[in-house]
């Protein structure tokens, strides 16, 4: 019960920035005496600090409190085939340092462990870590990661929580990206979003539905490479064939036919429309140019009624991905086990 009360107060202070005990009590619907006792405990531990004294409205002047930004730190990192990207955040989610390390995907978990050891030694305040990987993850364990066999069937959560005495969240790259996009864009919580990335490791998608990630019964949701599109090949093969045939160029239909990559993406959007009917489908900068969105929409209209085609948007994958991981690390800081 005590931990739950502290958690509500943390989230309230994170949302408001600072607040008096009365404001916290009103926001959380926790009694004033209970809030007062909890704030005293959190102030003694260094988690909460006094930020000022408000003007009196007739009685004792109310004190104002905020989370101590340096009380604990969080770490977000993602693993790519070219590099590992790290971001250290403070207790309110602000980025205090960002840096890159060599990729470890080809070398294996031992190389990642060495990198983490160095980071944890230099930042002893880190209590929560979120790791993004280009593969499917279930409960902190990687169970499908094409091309990187050394990380296959690796339980990142168990391995590093025990080794470093932290709480850890491991997440699929596309799931983290769609979480980050939703947080950065300010879209409504109830909106359904499909986030598509052609990627360096093959296409993938993250699906945000009713305020959470759609993971599926075996946590395989979003592996759109396998979506059948033509008589003899799926979406991954369609992308590979189009890249092999020609560079992805902003060109109109030739001989009445759209470019192969446009048609493949349009079919994927149509599949999303028919199955989850999203409010928006997000593509990544570098995969699609702004004028190509119109071509995708026009082509998609030949597969599903135009009235049901969602908003098509271009976003920055790296910013969304890292922000999503930072949010996951912050959640772990706010809800310690």
Key traits:
alpha/beta, five-stranded mixed sheet, single chain, 38% helix, 3 domains, Nucleotidyltransferase, domain 5, globular, Arc Repressor Mutant, subunit A, 337 residues
Q: Would you mind describing this structure in some detail?
A:
With 337 residues, this protein is an alpha/beta fold. It has 3 domains: 2-67, Arc Repressor Mutant, subunit A, CATH 1.10.10.10; 73-177 and 320-334, ATPase, nucleotide binding domain (Nucleotidyltransferase, domain 5), CATH 3.30.420.40; 188-315, 2-Layer Sandwich (Nucleotidyltransferase, domain 5), CATH 3.30.420. It contains 10 helices and 15 strands. The protein has helices spanning 2-16, 21-28, 32-44, 109-122, 156-164, 173-185, 235-245, 260-275, 290-300, 317-334; strands at residues 19-20, 48-53, 63-67, 73-79, 83-89, 95-102, 126-133, 136-138, 141-144, 167-172, 193-197, 204-209, 212-213, 280-284, 311-315. The strands form 4 sheets. A 5-stranded mixed beta sheet has the order 6-5-4-7-10, sandwiched between helices. A hairpin with a 3-residue loop joins strand 4 (73-79) and strand 5 (83-89). Helix 1 crosses helix 3 (32-44), helix 2 packs across helix 3 and helix 7 runs antiparallel to helix 8. The chain is globular. Residues 247-253 have low confidence and may be disordered.
């Amino acid at each position: 019960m005590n931990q739950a009360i502290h958690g509500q107060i943390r989230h309230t202070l994170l949302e408001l920035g600072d607040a008096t005990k009365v404001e916290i009590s009103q926001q959380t619907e926790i009694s004033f005496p209970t809030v007062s006792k909890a704030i005293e405990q959190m102030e003694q531990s260094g988690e909460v600090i006094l930020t000022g004294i408000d003007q009196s409205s007739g009685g004792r002047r109310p004190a104002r409190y905020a989370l101590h930004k340096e009380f604990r730190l969080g770490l977000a990192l993602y693993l790519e085939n070219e590099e590992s990207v790290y971001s250290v955040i403070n207790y309110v989610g602000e980025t205090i340092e960002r840096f890159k390390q060599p990729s470890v995907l080809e070398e294996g978990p031992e190389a990642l462990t060495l990198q983490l050891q160095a980071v944890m030694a230099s930042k002893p305040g880190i209590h929560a870590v979120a790791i993004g990987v280009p593969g499917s993850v279930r409960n902190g364990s990687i169970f499908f990661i094409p091309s990187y066999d050394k990380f296959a069937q690796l339980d990142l959560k168990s391995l590093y929580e025990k080794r470093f005495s932290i709480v850890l969240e491991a997440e699929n790259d596309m799931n983290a990206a769609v979480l980050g996009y939703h947080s950065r864009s300010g879209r409504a919580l109830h909106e359904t979003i499909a986030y598509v990335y052609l990627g360096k490791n093959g296409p993938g998608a993250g699906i945000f539905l009713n305020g959470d990630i759609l993971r599926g019964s075996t946590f395989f949701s979003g592996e759109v490479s396998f979506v059948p599109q033509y008589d003899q090949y799926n979406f991954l093969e369609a992308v590979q064939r189009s890249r092999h045939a020609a560079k992805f160029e902003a060109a109109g239909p030739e001989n009445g036919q759209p470019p192969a990559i446009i048609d493949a993406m349009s079919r994927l959007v149509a599949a999303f429309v028919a199955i989850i009917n999203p409010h928006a489908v997000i593509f990544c900068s570098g995969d699609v140019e702004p004028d190509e969105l119109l071509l995708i929409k026009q082509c998609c209209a030949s597969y599903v009624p135009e009235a049901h085609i969602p908003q098509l948007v271009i976003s920055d994958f790296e910013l969304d991905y890292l922000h999503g991981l930072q949010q996951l690390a912050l959640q772990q800081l706010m809800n310690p086990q």
